[in-house]
């Protein structure tokens, strides 16, 4: 590893902290401008979460984390997979149908369903990858359109396979057998609800993400492509194949996003299944700087804001959608702050290199040659 | 000086100009003055601070200290608009012309207020063209014009905006010797009309030929201003470098009869027009350096990309030894022993934001010591980077700094060290000394000579004719995608090559 560099560590912490402060200030201004109770709002949001809410935060963070890692795989090579949203919905639908049939017992059913979800998510993403590689279609456009198509396809297929409960408007897939339902862990004392068992899945995915991208040849090729596609091509990376692989990997990870919900909470896929997780993933991946640990912190922050805002309407009389403003401002501020810090860092390093070289030269005047 | 009449004041006068930058040689106490109606040359090696100085003069950057006087008046240049208002115009090395517009449209672009965009603008363009004998037709389409003509349009653009002092940044870099002579005749014409020309260059022969006065810059500061009639190229070079100028010379021939790289009837289609590469055949033996000369854009970049597997040829084959590698991927070609020094190291050879040791892996991601199986062996790669930094004299404080923070010469030494570390059989080097300082240049030449001695086949593409003549065993010229016959570097002159580079007898086209 690179020797520890205090300045660098400080700089990388400064950006998110700065962004949070900016978000705090701007949101306060917005609240004050429309005459909402500023103090009450922050008291509600920043209150210490009750045990039950803590569990909710952890659970939401697990799902966000999977989504953000899926997005980050693409980001690391400059691929903007906006389609995680569609990919996870198609995948969770397929997995729910598969698991609902209960062909395999207990854990085996869960593992097989995870594989089904990854395969389906990957396949869905491969459409965008194929279009990009073969036809030069921007993955941003194609994945956005595939999100819309996913919505249609899933609703249509859901009607075909749904179990409709008597006297209810909601429709869903067949509920998975009890032996494959995960009860979760009693991690937080005093909470009646439980943390998803599949929190393990998030940890595993995070570790694999760090290991594969940072430690393997494949990861090096992927990061090189993201940093400079032209240099990657010249270094022998087969960029079209890399685009296919990265996009499919991103889609396969997206397939896992709905799994903690499916096996730990809903036990089937229906019209009430949580949506919009893919877009949250984009924001969280940006906030976490595509870093396995950074994304974990960003997920927890995002989940914290989401859960804490539930009480806004009751406690402060402010619509809970306010949290979207806060999240949006954080995102803007953080993206700007990262760019500013990146530039400052580059300049600082250049001048440091120049200074150290000048020092070397003056201490060893015998070395001849031109200025560096 | 202030009491002198404005008429006799210098056109431009710089005093104590200082500019500090992180990480690069900037300007320190630059002082000189330019007489009106003269061609004044600024010479200095790459990285000496010429470009910064020009940017300051053109208002792109502000000096930290010092004053600029134009016609005896102190001016504050905050932007290029200020510079133009003060009568200073800049002709950039890289032309800023829109190909799909006519000459007149290009000239009026951004200066619509002066003479409108219609007939009166065209009349003004014709008037300037005739007054300074530029031979520019306002209705011609820029896409149809050659390099020399484009440069004249750039000059006309500046005159159209009312410049009295023209800055030409390395104007001959893109020209062949014959076009250079034409340019010099035009500069003389401008001078006769009372205009002042600041001529930036590092080509000493040209400077001696054209300038009335020469200011030498070294390490960001003015060393001396000399009269060209009292110095020769050698003395000027020593002023510029501060020591003896290295020159590229090969030792005795090491060419063997073992063919290492063979290109056979290679064609690369260019869409609708004529092919980009037109039936190219060449052979390089072990221990041989084959130099390719040519004006940029005649297919040299594409030839390299086809050999390196980055482009698929339309027809024809590339052989490494006896193996046909035409449809191999770049990675396989590199693994098979083809070292590659790309033309544009920032785009093709480096990850600028990655540390040096990761850049050492780049291009050899599948080879020892960088990897163990499917895993990156960071420890071994770092150790080997330390070795390259030491053996190839890469000046850096550590192997953990980003590649982007090194100077061009040190980046290039790292790249050469990396490529040579994998014992290549063939080395493809495109413009290996472009944009590097003289110290690095001579060590890069040494490495190429060493490669030749070790029995590599070297394909050397360069725009520097002296470098080609000095290093190559055989020189060929590429023109519009076709290769000329062999030139013997022992007898060929830069003028001969220049003629072949334009296509002798076809010179009318460049008008």
Features:
heterodimer; A: 372 residues; mainly alpha; ABC transporter involved in vitamin B12 uptake, BtuC; 15 helices; 2 strands; disordered C terminus; B: 511 residues; alpha/beta; Rossmann fold; 2 domains; six-stranded mixed beta sheet; 32% helix; globular; disordered N terminus
Commentary on this structure:
The complex is a heterodimer of chains A (372) and B (511). Chain A is an all-alpha fold and 372 residues long. Chain A has a domain at 52-294: ABC transporter involved in vitamin B12 uptake, BtuC. Helices cover 72% and strands 1% of the residues of chain A. Chain A has a two-stranded antiparallel sheet with strand order 1-2. In chain A, strand 1 and strand 2 (171-172) form a beta hairpin. With 511 residues, chain B is of the alpha/beta class. Chain B folds into two domains: 6-241, Rossmann fold (3-Layer(aba) Sandwich); 275-510, Rossmann fold (3-Layer(aba) Sandwich), CATH 3.40.50. Chain B contains 18 helices and 22 strands. The model of chain B is unreliable at 1-6 and 505-511 (pLDDT under 50). Chains A and B meet through helix 8, helix 9 and helix 15 of A and helix 11, strand 18 and helix 16 of B.
What's this, in brief?
Chain A is mostly helical and 372 residues long.
Strand content of chain A: under 5%
CATH topology of the largest domain in chain B: Rossmann fold
Largest interface: A-B, 38 and 58 residues
CATH architecture of the largest domain in chain B: 3-Layer(aba) Sandwich
Query: Gap between N and C termini of chain B, in Å?
Result: 44 Å
Quote the CATH topology of the domain at 52-294 in chain A. Answer: ABC transporter involved in vitamin B12 uptake, BtuC
């Amino acid at each position: 590893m690179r020797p520890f560099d205090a300045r660098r560590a400080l700089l990388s912490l400064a950006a998110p902290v700065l962004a949070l402060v900016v978000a705090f200030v701007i949101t306060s201004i917005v609240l004050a401008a429309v005459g909402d109770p500023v103090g009450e709002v922050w008291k509600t949001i920043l209150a210490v979460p009750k045990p039950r809410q803590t569990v909710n935060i952890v659970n939401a963070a697990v799902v966000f984390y999977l989504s953000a890692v899926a997005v980050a795989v693409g980001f690391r090579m400059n691929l903007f997979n906006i389609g995680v949203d569609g990919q996870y919905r198609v995948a969770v639908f397929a997995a729910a149908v598969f698991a609902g049939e209960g062909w395999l017992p207990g854990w085996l059913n869960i593992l097989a369903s995870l594989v089904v979800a990854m395969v389906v998510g990957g396949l869905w993403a491969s459409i965008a990858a194929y279009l990009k590689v073969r036809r030069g279609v921007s993955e941003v456009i194609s994945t956005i359109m595939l999100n819309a198509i996913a919505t249609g396809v899933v609703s249509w297929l859901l009607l075909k396979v749904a179990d409709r409960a008597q006297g209810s408007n909601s429709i869903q897939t067949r509920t998975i057998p009890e032996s494959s339902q995960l009860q979760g862990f009693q991690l937080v004392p005093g909470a009646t609800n439980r943390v998803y068992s599949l929190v393990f899945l998030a940890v595993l995915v995070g570790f694999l993400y760090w290991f594969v991208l940072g430690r393997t040849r494949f990861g090096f090729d992927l990061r090189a492509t993201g940093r400079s596609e032209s240099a990657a091509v010249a270094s022998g990376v087969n960029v079209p194949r890399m685009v296919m692989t990265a996009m499919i990997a991103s889609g396969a990870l997206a397939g896992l996003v709905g799994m903690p919900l499916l096996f730990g909470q809903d036990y089937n896929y229906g019209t009430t299944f949580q949506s919009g997780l893919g877009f949250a993933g984009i924001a969280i991946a940006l906030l976490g700087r595509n870093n396995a640990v950074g994304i974990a912190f960003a997920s927890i922050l995002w989940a914290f804001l989401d859960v804490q805002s539930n009480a806004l309407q009751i406690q402060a009389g402010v619509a809970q959608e306010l949290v979207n403003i806060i999240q949006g401002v954080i995102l803007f501020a953080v993206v700007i702050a990262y760019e500013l810090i990146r530039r400052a860092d580059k300049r600082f390093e250049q001048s440091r290199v120049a200074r150290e070289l000048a020092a070397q030269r003056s201490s060893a005047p015998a070395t001849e040659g031109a200025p560096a | 000086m202030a009491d002198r009449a404005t008429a006799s004041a210098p056109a431009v006068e710089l005093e104590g100009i200082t500019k500090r930058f992180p990480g690069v040689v900037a300007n320190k106490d630059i002082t000189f003055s330019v007489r009106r109606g003269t061609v004044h040359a600024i010479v200095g090696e790459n990285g000496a601070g010429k470009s910064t100085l020009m940017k300051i003069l053109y208002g792109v950057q502000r000096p930290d200290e010092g004053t600029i006087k134009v016609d005896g008046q102190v001016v504050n240049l905050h932007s290029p608009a200020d510079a133009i208002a003060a009568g200073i115009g800049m002709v950039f090395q890289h032309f800023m012309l829109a190909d799909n517009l006519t000459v007149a449209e290009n000239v009026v672009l951004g200066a619509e207020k002066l003479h409108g965009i219609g007939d009166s603008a065209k009349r003004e363009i014709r008037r300037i063209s005739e007054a300074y004998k530029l031979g520019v037709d306002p209705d011609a389409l820029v896409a149809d014009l050659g390099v020399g003509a484009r440069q004249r349009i750039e000059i006309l653009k500046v005159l159209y905006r009312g410049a009295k002092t023209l800055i030409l940044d390395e104007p001959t870099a893109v020209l062949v010797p014959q076009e250079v002579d034409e340019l010099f005749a035009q500069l003389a014409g401008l001078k006769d009309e009372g205009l002042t020309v600041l001529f930036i260059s590092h080509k000493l022969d040209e400077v001696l030929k054209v300038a009335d006065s020469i200011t030498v810059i070294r390490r960001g500061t003015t060393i001396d201003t000399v009269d060209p009639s009292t110095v020769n190229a050698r003395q000027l070079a020593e002023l510029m470098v501060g020591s003896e100028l290295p020159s590229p010379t090969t030792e005795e021939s090491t060419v063997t009869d073992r063919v290492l790289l063979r290109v056979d009837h290679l064609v690369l289609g260019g869409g609708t027009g004529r092919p980009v590469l037109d039936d190219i055949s060449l052979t390089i033996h072990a221990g041989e350096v084959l130099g390719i000369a040519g004006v940029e854009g005649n297919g040299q970049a594409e030839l390299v990309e086809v050999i390196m597997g980055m482009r698929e040829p339309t027809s024809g084959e590339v052989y490494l030894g006896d193996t046909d590698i035409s449809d191999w991927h770049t990675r396989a070609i590199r693994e098979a022993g083809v070292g590659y020094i790309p033309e544009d190291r920032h785009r093709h050879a480096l990850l600028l934001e990655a540390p040096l040791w990761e850049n050492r892996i780049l291009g050899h991601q599948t080879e020892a010591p960088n990897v163990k199986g499917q895993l990156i062996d960071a420890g071994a790669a770092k150790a080997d980077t330390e070795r390259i930094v030491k053996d190839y004299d890469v000046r850096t404080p550590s192997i953990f700094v980003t590649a982007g923070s090194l100077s061009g010469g040190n980046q290039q030494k790292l790249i050469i060290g990396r490529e040579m570390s994998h014992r290549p059989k063939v080395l493809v080097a495109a413009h290996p000394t472009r944009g590097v300082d003289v110290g690095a240049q001579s060590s890069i030449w040494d490495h190429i000579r060493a490669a030749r001695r070790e029995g590599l086949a070297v394909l050397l593409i360069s725009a520097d004719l002296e470098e080609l003549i000095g290093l190559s065993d055989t020189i060929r010229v590429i023109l519009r995608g076709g290769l000329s016959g062999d030139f013997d570097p022992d007898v060929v002159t830069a003028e001969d090559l220049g003629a072949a580079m334009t296509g002798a007898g076809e010179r009318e086209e460049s008008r």
